[in-house]
Amino acid sequence: MSDSPTPGRSEKTAGRPARADARRNRERLLGVARDAFAATDGKATLDAIAREADVGIGTLYRHFPTREALVEAIYAAELDAVVTSAPALLSELPPEAALRAWMDRYAAFVAVKRGITDTLRAGWAAGTIATPATRERITTAIAEILDAGAETGSLRADVEPEAVTMMLLGVFMSTTAGNSPELTGRLLDLVADALRPTTDR
């Protein structure tokens, strides 16, 4: 049996399955690593992550040559997800509901970050992990939701997005992994309530 490519089939087409498999492996590794780091306070080994993702350690290293590279990719993917969720939620929900749902998504991002904080800080200090514009991007997402709420009258128009960022950071700094999700939820409810027009409260 010949090992030559099927007649008429381009190399680009022939390569698609491999690239698709590589993308799936990368996404699976990111998801497993994210959950593993969150569950073990960042102590999960790369070998354990590869086994859980059902790939060889060599596959993990091809995508993420170092632990820092894996952590950086997790952080970047989670930050992108929380930022892009703002317009997605606004397309589905009224602004006030979108804001509260987005706060939960932001809380999930913070929970993931807690599991990789030590590696992130060491990488930022050493320059091996790029310093992202996290606060600016989060504040921009908040501004988008606040603007939509101001237009409909469902959210206050006199609050600066940066002030909301500061309030949310205060909530997350005051609640640790040992606190119940219910407590975080109640505090976020209070923030959301403070952002509604006075006549709505």
Short description:
The protein has 201 residues and is mainly α. The protein has helices at residues 11-40, 46-52, 57-63, 67-90, 95-126, 134-152, 161-174, 181-194.
Outline the structure in words.
- It contains eight helices and no strands.
- It is an all-alpha fold.
- It folds into two domains: 57 residues, Arc Repressor Mutant, subunit A, CATH 1.10.10.60; 129 residues, Orthogonal Bundle (Tetracycline Repressor, domain 2).
- α7 packs antiparallel against α8.
- The N terminus is likely disordered.
Q: Could you list some keywords that capture this structure?
A:
elongated; Tetracycline Repressor, domain 2; Arc Repressor Mutant, subunit A; 201 residues; mainly alpha; 8 helices
Helix content: over 70%
User: What is the N-to-C order of secondary-structure elements (H for helix, E for strand)?
Assistant: HHHHHHHH
Measured distance between first and last alpha carbons: 76 Å
Which stretches of 5+ consecutive residues score pLDDT under 50? 1-15
Outline the biggest β-sheet.
none
Given this structure, which CATH class of the largest domain is correct? Answer: Mainly Alpha
CATH H-level superfamily of the largest domain: Tetracycline Repressor, domain 2
Q: What fold name stands as the CATH topology of the largest domain?
A: Tetracycline Repressor, domain 2
Shape: elongated
The total strand number stands at: 0
Residue fraction in strands: under 5%
